[in-house]
Specification:
- Keywords: Metal-binding, Zinc, Zinc-finger.
- The protein has a domain of about 130 residues: DksA, coiled-coil domain (Four Helix Bundle (Hemerythrin (Met), subunit A), Up-down Bundle).
- Helices cover about 55% and strands about 0% of the residues.
- It has five helices and no strands.
- Helix 2 packs antiparallel against helix 3.
- The radius of gyration is 47 Å and the shape is flat.
- The relative contact order is 0.11.
């Protein structure tokens, strides 16, 4: 009898332990559900590269100080007696165009710098220095203006077909001299004559 009761008590304890274990298992919080996979980011299209600007040849378009349009390369020619080839005249024409652009840019810059309003000048020394700078800029701009007139006169001669002859002797100036100063008006010999006469008058 005693053994039977002991056996019953032992079985009851096991049953209770099993029940408690099941109850504890049922009370545990459920594992959180797995997060849904993130949606794939939409593909971003790269902007198309901008096409490189096409290179353009320097244009001689514009107006000269005499309100005449700058002659085109196809319009220029030398005097028949100047003995200049087509290739030489085209080379000299391009030199004149390049020099005109350079001189015109410098002229505009120097005049602009001379006329611009600077900071308020503090004393007489600053005012005097500013006046000196302005005078220098104006003198430089005036030289550029005179050179611009000579360059455009040479271009006008190319248009009319009179280019390449000395204005004092009507002799060919020569390509080598023109290559150095394509706007020159005189041959070497006549230029030296003018300089000697000028020197005699200044004595």
């Amino acid at each position: 009898m005693a053994k039977a009761r002991t056996t019953e008590k032992s079985g009851a304890k096991k049953t209770a332990a099993t029940t408690t274990t099941k109850a504890s298992a049922s009370e545990r919080p459920a594992k959180p559900a797995a997060k849904p996979a993130a949606a794939a980011a939409p593909a971003v299209e790269k902007p198309a590269a901008k096409p490189a600007p096409a290179k353009t040849e320097r244009s001689a378009a514009g107006t000269m100080s005499n309100n005449q349009p700058i002659p085109d390369a196809s319009q220029v020619r030398a005097h028949p007696d100047a003995k200049l080839s087509t290739k030489e005249i085209q080379s000299l024409y391009q030199k004149l165009i390049d020099e005109r652009n350079r001189v015109l840019s410098g002229f505009d810059r120097h005049v602009s710098e001379a006329l611009e309003d600077g900071d308020v000048l503090a004393d007489e020394i600053d005012i005097a220095q500013r006046s000196t700078d302005q005078a220098w800029l104006f003198r430089f701009a005036d030289k550029e203006r005179k050179l611009l007139i000579e360059i455009e006169a040479a271009l006008e001669k190319m248009r009319s077909g009179e280019y390449g002859l000395c204005e004092g002797t009507d002799e060919p100036i020569g390509f080598k001299r023109l290559e150095l100063r394509p706007w020159t008006r005189y041959s070497v010999g006549y230029k030296e004559l003018l300089e000697r006469e000028k020197a005699q008058h200044t004595r």
